[in-house]
Design a protein that fits this description.
Keywords: Lyase, Periplasm, Signal
Protein name: Alginate lyase family protein
Subcellular location: Periplasm
Distance between the termini: 45 Å
Structural class: alpha+beta
CATH architecture of the largest domain: Distorted Sandwich
Shape: globular
Largest sheet: 9 strands, antiparallel
InterPro entries: Chondroitin_lyas (IPR008929), Hepar_II_III_C (IPR012480), Hepar_II_III_N (IPR031680)
Strand content: 15-25%
Number of helices: 12
CATH topology of the largest domain: Beta-galactosidase, Chain A, domain 5
GO molecular function: lyase activity
């Protein structure tokens, strides 16, 4: 790639950043020369045991004897945990530093305290764990563990308070999005645990405006990842649990937390598939966030219900159900302009269920490492949409970056008909229009571009499909193509979870200007 091309990609990435992101990036640069360290605690009193209605237990990831399993990869450390372990990738190391295992089912209290003390001994050399995001999650998990176990430990409290005090100076305004929300959630937990008004003031200053912006009008999280939607909903439910059951600070955040959880639960109930799975659009994988059923039941324990049906709109997703078909389609922007770290080049992709089972699905996410697998899983080819000239509809690059991005205009938005156009291929001289509609008992998808294109369809592993002329025939459905020049089968990889990939059948349907796909 030429220097001018690199400059173009970089400029079309950073030009959307907010002024506050630039200021905090400059602050981060200066901190390289004037680093901030963990200081001795100045807390006025130790932590207090907080009250909680039972939350959702975390997945079992600690198996005793310093053996951990995250992201489908297990590591036994032996006598000493390596808190900087990165051989399985940085995300695995971050999960180790989150300490979510403290709140898994049947966690022994003394074992949990031993692991916390082991980390405290490592603190003078800690790098990964002192980044703001893992620091935030670890603080929440320590407080939940200490409170639910009835543990008073002044040594742990001292270090916990020092970490939260450091977090106040390391807030992730350079990233914003879910990272900044996690900082705010951690400070809110710290405020209640230590009865600290400084932590509370900072938490409130983050949470009120960020929740108003990040929770869209239809209840979806603005990063457009169903997985991160579930993660954020889980955390907001925990914060509501915290405020509702502990009488501090006048409970002034209770109303906004309840309001956001209600609408987020409504969005989740609308988009979750009939088998309980979330669609795997953008960065999304199973086994990371609590399931939809767990979140809905947790909300009910807290007295939170979604009383009205949500109409999907602002999140850019639409859900269509009729007969044996269930169709989830993306007709929205790839995400918030200034934070596209979890976006894929997947505009107009869809997932299809037939008789309650997944048939056509997106690729999912198996890694955040910067490698060919990550590049493929974010590419347009990996999704159920149209590719022109082998290009991505949005310029995804590195592990979490997007340069030029597809802009979407919805032309028709009816219950049984959706038509939208995006300009992701404008640089190639054409637009892509996709219409999805119910015609009698069929689904009709019409794609139009001003030149040759290729529509991709990716099927679930083990789905039995026969290519018969211009048709794909399954056990209880048939997909017929009008306008196809060639239908070419190939093998691709499905990634339902991190570090888990399965072979499946995919098809490339070449066409000239217009393709009509009938699912019947």
């Amino acid at each position: 790639m030429s220097i001018s091309s690199k400059i173009d990609i970089l400029w079309n990435t950073v030009k959307y950043l907010k002024p506050i992101q630039w200021r905090y990036r400059a602050k981060l640069w200066l901190q390289r020369f004037f680093p901030q360290y963990l200081e001795s605690s100045s807390m006025t009193s130790g932590g207090q045991i907080l009250n909680f209605i039972p939350s959702i237990p975390n997945e079992i990831t600690y198996f005793g004897d310093n053996s951990f399993k995250f992201l489908n990869l297990q590591k036994s450390f032996g006598e000493k945990v390596d808190w900087e372990f990165v051989e399985f990738g940085r995300l695995w190391g971050y999960n180790l530093n989150y300490f979510e295992f403290l709140n898994q089912k049947s966690m022994d209290v003394e074992v949990g305290r031993r692991l916390i003390r082991d980390f405290i001994q490592h603190l003078p050399k800690a790098r990964m764990g002192m980044e703001p995001y893992p620091l935030s999650l670890r603080s929440i998990n320590w407080i939940r563990f200490l409170s639910c176990s009835g543990v008073n430990d002044v040594d742990i409290d001292t270090v916990l308070y020092a970490q939260l005090s450091l977090l106040v100076h390391k807030l992730e305004y350079h990233l914003l999005g879910n990272h900044l929300l996690e900082n705010g959630f951690a400070l809110l937990f710290g405020a209640y645990y230590f009865n600290d008004h400084i932590f509370y003031k900072k938490a409130k200053a983050i949470l009120i405006p960020e929740l108003q912006e990040q929770v869209l009008g239809d209840g979806g999280h603005f990063e457009r990842s169903p997985m991160y939607h579930c993660i954020m909903l889980y955390r907001i439910l925990d914060c509501y649990n915290l405020i509702r059951n502990n009488a501090l600070f006048g409970k002034e955040l209770e109303d906004i937390l309840k309001e956001k959880t209600e609408v987020m639960l409504g969005w989740l109930e609308e988009v979750v598939c009939s088998d309980g799975r979330i669609p795997l659009l953008n960065d999304a994988a199973m086994g990371i966030a609590p399931t939809a059923n767990e979140l809905i039941e947790y909300g009910q324990r807290l007295g939170i219900f979604c009383g009205k049906k949500v109409r999907l709109k602002e999140s850019g997703y639409r859900k269509v159900r009729w007969g044996k078909f269930e169709l989830f389609v993306d007709v929205g922007e790839v995400g918030p302009e200034y934070q596209l770290g979890h976006a894929h080049a997947d505009t107009f992709s869809f997932e299809l269920y037939v008789n309650g089972r997944p048939v056509i699905v997106d690729t999912g996410t198996s890694t955040y490492e910067v490698n060919n697998t990550r590049f493929y899983e974010r590419s347009t080819v990996a999704h159920n949409t149209v590719v022109v000239s082998g290009q991505n509809s949005s310029q995804v690059w590195a592990g979490h970056r997007v340069a030029r991005r597809a802009r979407v205009q919805v032309l028709c938005d009816e219950e049984e008909r959706i038509v939208a156009v995006h300009d992701g291929y404008k640089r190639l001289g054409c637009l892509h229009t996709r219409g999805v509609e119910k015609v009698e008992e069929h689904i009709r998808i019409v794609d139009e571009v001003a030149q040759e294109g290729a529509a991709y369809l990716h099927f679930m592993p083990k789905e039995n499909i026969v290519l018969d002329g211009n048709r794909l025939v399954g056990s209880d459905y048939c997909i017929e193509f009008d306008g196809a020049r060639e239908i070419a089968p190939f093998t691709s990889m499905y990634a339902p979870e991190f570090n888990k990939r399965e072979e499946r059948r995919s098809f490339r349907i070449s066409f000239d200007r217009r393709l009509e796909t009938i699912i019947q």
